[in-house]
Amino acid sequence: MTFCFTGIRSLPKLWKSNPYLSVGPGHSYFSLFLKDCCGIRNQQKWFSLKAVSPQNTKAVNLLIAKARYLRKGDEGSNKQVSSDSHLFAAGAAKKRSQMNTHREDHALPPVRNTIQLPTRPLNSEEWDKFKEDFKGKANFESWIISQMADCHSSIDVAKSLLAWVAAKNNGIVGYDLLVKYLYLCVFHKHISEVIDVYEIMKARYKRLEPGGYTLLIQGLIHSDRWKEALLLLEDIKKVMIPSKKNYNDCIEGALLHQDVNLAWNLYQELLGHNLIPMLKTLKAFFDFGKNIKDDQYSNKLLDILLYLRNNHLYPGESFAHSIKTWFESGQCSGCGKTIESIHLSPEEYEFLKEKIMRDVIDGGDQYKKTTPQELERFQNFVKCCPPFDIVIDGLNVAKTFPKARESQVLLHVVSQLAKQNLQLLVLGRKHMLTQHSRWRKDEMKKVQKQASCFFADNISADDPFLLYATLHSGNHCKFITKDLMRDHKACLHDAKTQRLFFKWQQGHQLAIINRLPGSKITFQRIPSYDTVVQTTGDSWHIPYDEDLLERYSYEVPTKWLCLHRKT
């Protein structure tokens, strides 16, 4: 009998309840897998409190042996690193390594696995045949799921493997297979699948291994059930100190969902365990700080800088850029006073979100160009995805360069943004998937591999979908379109909401300013300050129009008058 999953939600029906509620199996093979694939610390036994040796003795002895057997001809061959960099200068070690590339005693290159993994879901008969081709593997199921995890196979293919295993074992799928499937769900950010696996594991096991907890926390923080990640963190504390990655994920989840106090409390708890925070954790605080005008928050960020100094930690280029942006955000270059931020407060954001959902999404005229069924389909689609970082108006962006092929332009934009590890959503129309001189299927398939995509009916309007996805993802999410959304602003009936919408739009809308197709995509700069008359009591900042410069109603002045009282 063939079992083909249409969704992971059917798994509990196939699996029998396990009468033994216990800790998941802890094998060294499994621990190594998680360390390689997820960056999780290698803790082979859940209850082991034995400290790991600070050195790998075998590896050290190997290095000593290699040093003894260097060819005599190599002894004088090492050249000095150029005199303009010292021994500990960044990049010096790489230069020294490049000078020694002629040596013959290099380590062997890693062995590449040449197995051809399935590219589509298989049925039971096809899995049986596939297994026959690999009779030499003692545990085919465990081996193949490891290969799939290593190669980041699609969720559907892995799901068909689990269905095949469940059908052969009276509905039982082992912990090892389940947790590696969970890894694929987290990697591909299939949040609904993560939640389904979470429910299954919660029902079957009282406790998990550190790797299982880490994957669940990493997946749950992007969902509406993100606070349950904190319960998993508490479960870990009952047995051991959580890892810095566990704390990082929970902190990122708290910031993503605007719970600043919780994020700082978790950070202090991490330091209290004498753990060195991940640099991405510290960066997350600075990135969030760009949206906050609060002296107390600013002082905490300054404490982080002192922490870097006292612990000889060096931020990466991206982290350094975040620090720079935070320092420069909202300061008058004339007097140094802080200018009101363009970003909405959490209260303003929630107020605006509710108004737009009610007046524009639910109560607007979008049904003239779409249907309630399609809008509901889109809302369900968004709920199953992690929060997006950037929402792209696909058709609008594709027409940026009229003489270029539209699918090529869209692919160029998506590929550049995907390299920054951003969670992307491309909104489009169904005709974009049809082969045409302006739309190539192979290019659109590449777009779909790098971003989540939703293609509406050809008569549907994109803007309501764009607004909904951006607001649903949170205050960090930006959107790309040349559309100025004046019609939707007009749907907001009171002046306060219109002002907040325009302020939010200025702080979140990206526009491409390239002149030539194929060149690196650059975006128009988003201002960090609000263009309104402002005062701090002893100073005034007044935006004003230049003479002879025509300004449309949806534009703002670029010149400022800076006034401050003499003391």
From TrEMBL:
Q: Kindly list the cofactors needed.
A: Mn(2+); Mg(2+)
* Keyword Signal in record: no
The record's GO CC annotations read: mitochondrial matrix; mitochondrial ribonuclease P complex
Cite the PRORP domain residue spans from the record: 328-562
Q: Gene3D superfamilies, per this entry? A: 3.40.50.11980, Tetratricopeptide repeat domain
Give start-end ranges for the coiled-coil region(s).
none
Q: Name one GO molecular function term.
A: ribonuclease P activity
The UniProt subunit note reads as follows: Catalytic component of mitochondrial ribonuclease P, a complex composed of TRMT10C/MRPP1, HSD17B10/MRPP2 and PRORP/MRPP3.
Q: What is this protein called?
A: Mitochondrial ribonuclease P catalytic subunit
Q: Which organism is it from?
A: Panthera leo (Lion)
